[in-house]
Amino acid sequence: AYKGKFERISSENYEEFLKALDVNYLLRKAAMVSTPTMEFSEENGVWSIKSATTLKSMELKFKVGEEFEEKTADGRDVKAVVNVEGGKFVIVQRAKKAGQASTHTVRELNGPNELIYTLRIEGNNSLVCVQKFKRI
Fold first, then answer.
1. What gap in Å lies between CA 78 and CA 94, rounded to an integer?
2. Three-state DSSP class for 29?
3. DSSP string, 30-91
4. CA–CA separation, 63 and 93 (whole Å)
5. pLDDT digit string (tens) for 45-101?
């Protein structure tokens, strides 16, 4: 059901979330005006989530339940694991460097054509970023 491409149509608390991750002003502003897409594919148990804007593209490749290392879009080196819980992709990214934020994100379908992407920073329960995407 997740396979396919989605485009962001709205976001709440995104700039505040980026600020809490210490993303610099210019990158925050660029992220705010972009219209990112997210594309899901899977082959032989290896999932791929490609995120793209006009400025930057990234690909997250993983097997569900297997820990891996990645460099996040904001430059953090993390150990990450993706699990499927109740039909949702739940990703935990633990910062390898002291003082950097660890994040918890959820990607879930709301009907066949809407994807809800919820982002949280561990230890900061008051800040929740919610982005909505539509299938394109």
1. 5
2. helix
3. HHHH---EEEEEEETTEEEEEEE-SS-EEEEEE-TT--EEEE-TTS-EEEEEEEEETTEEEE
4. 15
5. 999 999 998 778 899 999 999 999 999 888 899 999 999 999 999 999 999 999 899
Of 20 and 55, the one with more pLDDT:
20
Task: Assess contact for 81 and 92: CB atoms under 8 A.
Answer: yes
Cα–Cα dist 91/107, whole Å: 8
Q: How far apart are alpha carbons 48 and 80 in whole angstroms?
A: 14
- Other C-beta atoms closer than 10 Å to the C-beta of 6 total 22
For residues 79 and 67, what is the distance between their CA atoms, to the nearest angstrom? 7
Contacting residues for 67 by C-beta, under 8 A, at least 6 apart: 79, 80, 81
Percent of the chain with pLDDT over 70: 100
Task: Give the predicted TM-score (pTM) of the model.
Answer: 0.91
Question: Whole-angstrom Cα distance, residue 70 to residue 82?
Answer: 12
